[in-house]
Structure formats: structure tokens, C-alpha cells
Amino acid sequence: xxxxxxxxxxxxxxxxxxxxxxxxxxxxxxxxxxxxxxxxxxxxxxxxxxxxxxxxxxxxxxxxxxxxxxxxxxxxxxxxxxxxxxxxxxxxxxxxxxxxxxxxxxxxxxxxxxxxxxxxxxxxxxxxxxxxxxxxxxxxxxxxxxxxxxxxxxxxxxxxxxxxxxxxxxxxxxxxxxxxxxxxxxxxxxxxxxxxxxxxxxxxxxxxxxxxxxxxxxxxxxxxxxxxxxxxxxxxxxxxxxxxxxxxxxxxxxxxxxxxxxxxxxx
Amino acid sequence: xxxxxxxxxxxxxxxxxxxxxxxxxxxxxxxxxxxxxxxxxxxxxxxxxxxxxxxxxxxxxxxxxxxxxxxxxxxxxxxxxxxxxxxxxxxxxxxxxxxxxxxxxxxxxxxxxxxxxxxxxxxxxxxxxxxxxxxxxxxxxxxxxxxxxxxxxxxxxxxxxxxxxxxxxxxxxxxxxxxxxxxxxxxxxxxxxxxxxxxxxxxxxxxxxxxxxxxxxxxxxxxxxxxxxxxxxxxxxxxxxxxxxxxxxxxxxxxxxxxxxxxxxxxxxxxxxxxxxxxxxxxxxxxxxxxxx
Lengths: 267, 293
What we know:
The complex is a heterodimer.
Chain A: H1 13-22, E1 30-32, H2 38-48, E2 56-59, E3 63-64, H3 78-81, E4 86-87, H4 90-99, E5 106-109, E6 113-115, E7 120-121, E8 124-126, E9 131-134, H5 141-144, E10 150-155, E11 163-164, H6 181-184, E12 190-196, E13 199-203, E14 210-215, H7 221-227, E15 233-240, H8 246-256
Parallel strand pairs in A: 1-2, 5-10, 6-11, 10-12, 14-15
Antiparallel strand pairs in A: 2-3, 3-4, 6-7, 8-9, 12-13, 13-14
Helix pairs in contact in A: 1-2
Chain B: H1 8-11, E1 20-23, H2 33-41, E2 47-51, H3 55-63, E3 67-72, H4 84-91, E4 96-99, H5 102-113, E5 118-121, E6 137-141, E7 148-153, E8 159-167, E9 173-174, H6 182-185, H7 187-190, E10 193-201, H8 204-209, E11 214-216, E12 223-226, H9 244-253, H10 257-269, H11 274-281, H12 283-288
Parallel strand pairs in B: 1-2, 1-8, 2-3, 3-4, 8-10, 10-12
Antiparallel strand pairs in B: 5-7, 6-7, 8-9, 9-11
Helix pairs in contact in B: 3-4
């Protein structure tokens, strides 16, 4: 296995992933986070503390614009939204806002399995009614996948088990079998970026298959291809993922996530 | 004036074997755990639980053999992992599941609350959740030309069980400031009978001073059970935090059925009352969970 991080004194791979995700938020965006979403929460806070101070965050889907969120072992508990500007009625307000195509354009999430066309599985391995493995369930992701949202997936354990040619079960849809099948259902949006512990992918516009865009510093093309359970498109201008700045690393380590919850699941 | 205050034992008497039971719970948040313990102690069987995110309550009911079926959007204790006994029971075929997206579950309850046959959602379109023979969801065309939507059939639980901060003897229920979660505010409107445990029973005049905090009027509530720390080991914002050590000990015990059953024998069956349970947990431990503000 290649050493993922050339100089651990500078940054770790989780910090690179958080920094790369943070770059996807605009100052006028709104965002909410799901369960066990340490990387998205760190990315949201990093964006709010750098280039996107007005980014509106509904922490834990519960509290709007917290002034002093504290990250604990949960991304759905009160220390994160205790300093909110407003508490939300989840059924009546949160989902109404999300259903508005003008708002909450970007959703960052992980899944047990993700496939070549960005379909995600959080439900079962094997048959739905007699599963080999029952997974936690898709919750809001099954909604987000079908709405006009731009999905950003993070995969902390890039392997042939997590990135597969076809998911066992489509809990949340990406581009289905590609080639415009999603649009034929009348659905806009879809997955745009997949950030793993090795590389960053987008989706090739015609086939809608996952396309390798950048390799993280110190990671080789063969390493990524070997670790991927399908054959991705490789961008002609394959580049290198920009490393986080020392200011970003410092913010993450000292202020946003001093306990290192963002490292969970990485290998 | 008739009182709706009951013991937990009497209140769960409103639940019958085979009932559809709506269960309030986040992954680590606000579940009516004292009522869940009473359900298990009463030996209820063949229940069909409806829960947005499952959590420890779902896992305990699965361990006790009380469940036939679960309708849920997620079954998780977040950082403490999957509901392990529930998962094994599903894999063994002992519990059947109806997995829905969050908006689809809310649409099913919302339809029941409004007396409608169904409500539509745009969530879940294109997913395999629509291809597993679930008779409660169907893709239909928008009659006004807006494309396909998923019709979600009304789901009316027989009984809702939930926990709140305060109630009076008549059954008016109030909560402190904080987010309003669907299984606290929508679930009881959808359900035939409503059982609420509360941290404290207060004078009606106290509720009148903060009517914006009242979430259920007495006519919508069938039973009130006084249970201080009644959500333990889950959290009740802004009063107390969840009990991390308790979640960890359950997660360890739940790795196999025998140790999970032992855990329930100690924490659920052996305490004869809610007070006995609190004594077993210990005052000091409960005090440590208090949210300092």
C-alpha cells in the first residue's frame, strides 16, 4: 500500500478530504448535515470560517446557524446546535426548505456502497427480504438522491468493497444505468463529486460513469485502479488534489475538531 | 375532572399484542424508554413498530422478542453503530421490515393525521425501495402534469408512545424550547391512542404561562405517566444528555443474544418500577448527564 500522506507533519488525509469538500460550498449556499457526518460537518465549519462566512447551516437538521457548534461523538446532538439562531420543525420546515429547488442545493453524505454511476446502498447486502447483511437504512438520503440536489459523496475507505460496479440495492439513486436514464425519469440533480481517501472523481457527462479527476499527493494511478471495484473513466487532464493550507489544518486541529472525530472510518 | 395520569403498567395496557406502535426516538435522542421497559415487562408480542430512526428502543424490543415487523427510515444508534439484535433478527427472518425514505414515512403518517388516503413525495423515485413489493407505496402520475410522484398510503398507528418535558393531570403536554421532531409532533396526530411519559406533572396554570410550549391538548392524549429521567439513556434537550457509557455497555452486550438478554434482565426486568430503575442507574450518574447551561 502506498503511503497516502507524504509528510504527516503537514496534514493528514482526512484533513485533505475535508478541505476539498469545503471548497464546494459557496457563500450563499444553505446546507444541512446527516447522521455520523463528521467530514461534512468539519467541511461546513471550515467553509464558514474561511471563504463562506454566510453559509447557512442547519446543524443536525435541527438548529439554524449555530454560533459556537461543538463537535462531539454525534453530528445529530445538541452540542452542535445549542447556539442556533432558530430551532427547526423537521417535518414542516426542514423538508419544505429542502424541497425548494432554489435552496439547499448541495448535500454531502457517505454510504456503505457506491457504484460506477453514483447509485448508493445503505439498505442491504444480498436479498432485501432475506439479507445477508441488514444495513442501517437510507433515511433522508433516499429522498436527497431523487430531488434536484447536487450530491457530494465521501468515501474514507476506498476499496473494491465500497466502490463497486453495481450496488446490491439502490437505496438512493445516482444516474441509474447512466446515459441520461435519470433525466428520463424527470429528475434533475445527482451526484457530482466523490472524494475518497485516495482520489477525487466526478462523472463523465455522456456515459455518466465515475471519472477519476485528481489523485491525492503521493497516490499513484495504479493504486486507485487497484482499489476501485469498477473501471472508472480517467480524465485526460488527470491532476493532483490540492493539499489543505496550513491555516485550514490549524483550524481543524485546534478549533473545529480538536478531538479528531473526522478521522473515523479512514484508513 | 377526570385524570389521565396512570402508572406505566396501566398505560401500556392500552397496547395490545399485534398493535402498530409508533415510537418516538432519534439515534440517541428522546425515546420514551420508561414506557419501552414497561412494554417489554408486560410481555407484549407481535408488535409492529413505526420509528424514524430506531435506536436502542428498537433493539431492546427486538431482543425481547416483542417485534414482528418494523417500519423505519433508519435503524441506527449513530456512533454506537447499527441496532445489532434488530439486524440479526431481520437477517434471520424473524422480523420483517418496511424501509422508507424519511419523507415517505412522514407522508404515510401525515396522510393519517389529515384523514387522507395517501400523500405524495418526490423522494425515493427510481430507488429499489419501490421494487420490493411494498404495497404502501406506488408511483403515480401527477394529475396536473408535473411528472411522477410516490403515493404513500396513510399509516395510522394503534398507539403512539413518546416522552416530553411536562404534562398536567388532564393530559395537556408541553415541551421545552428546542427542535420539533416529527415523531413528537406528527406521530401523535396520526395515531389512534397516545401515551406520553413526562419528566414532571405540573399544575395546569403553569402550562398557561407558556402556551407556545404546549404541543398536545388533553383531548389528543389518552394517558400521562410521570417518569423523571424517563428518556434515559437517551437525551432530552435541554435537560440532560445521552448516557454514552450506557450506550457502550448495550453495544457490547448486544453482540450476542444471550448477553443482550442478560442486559435486559438486569436493566429492564429486575427493576420493579421506574424509581427502582433510577436507583439502579444511580443519582450521581444521572446528575452527571445534566446539561449545564
